[in-house]
């Protein structure tokens, strides 16, 4: 049986990670957070005092990028070599630098090959893969393809609640600026052909997870 792949894309603050992880639990699937790999690469460069803004340095570092991620939604972790960076990669000093590595085609190619290997190894019986270009580039023939969105206001509100020590205005500007930079590389604001949009503006967490699970179950039935 071929593995079931669920591709989920969306902008920052759309609730992608928490919704994808919970949907994976409810479906009994594995979970892959692709943003963690971009973050972990930026973390490695910064940790080594290397210039993440220099494409040559970034591309050269790919050979030493020893990335591991927990694909069990109940045992999520992110490691670079021996270092557990699960928490560190969410720090603002990493978040603000990720765009520098994510914009490079060599990095995207390298990580895409890595993601495809992880999907083949971990998908038992299925896997939920979330990011920015999963529905369009990494897994365009996934069983279910979903764009998870929410209004900018709602996304900013959710992110402010997570980052309690920063002002709403600062959080809002960071979110907008990251989406602007990321959209120059891949389009995750508009659903590509065949991609189902789940708009969570008016939905709570549980309702959003149910909407996603519902799209997946219908797609799986269609495919069987
Ligand atoms: O999803 P998350 O916010 O953790 O992603 C961090 C960053 O990684 C994004 O802002 C984007 O620059 C990059 N990314 C990407 N393609 C993906 C996933 C993440 O470019 N599939």
Ligand names = cytidine-5'-monophosphate
Strand line-up of the largest beta sheet: 2-6-1-7-8
Distance between the termini: 10 Å
Shape: globular
Residue stretches low in confidence (pLDDT < 50, at least 5 long) are: none
Mean pLDDT across residues: 94
Q: What is the radius of gyration?
A: 17 Å
User: How many E-type strands?
Assistant: 8
Q: Which structural class is indicated by helix and strand composition? A: alpha/beta
Number of helices: 10
**Percent in helix:** 40-55%
Which percent range describes the beta-strand content?
15-25%
Family: Belongs to the cytidylate kinase family. Type 1 subfamily.
InterPro entries: Cytidylate_kin, Cytidylate_kinase_dom, P-loop_NTPase
EC number: 2.7.4.25
Protein name: Cytidylate kinase
Would you summarize the structure shown here?
ATP binds at residues 10-18. With 224 residues, the chain is of the alpha/beta class. The chain contains 10 helices and 8 strands.
Topology, element by element:
Layout: E1 4-9, H1 16-27, E2 30-33, H2 35-47, H3 55-61, E3 67-69, E4 78-80, E5 83-84, H4 92-95, H5 98-102, H6 105-122, E6 126-131, H7 134-138, E7 144-149, H8 152-162, H9 168-183, E8 196-199, H10 205-223
Parallel strand pairs: 1-6, 1-7, 2-6, 7-8
Antiparallel strand pairs: 3-4, 4-5
The structure holds cytidine-5'-monophosphate.
Cytidine-5'-monophosphate binds next to helix 2, helix 5 and helix 9.
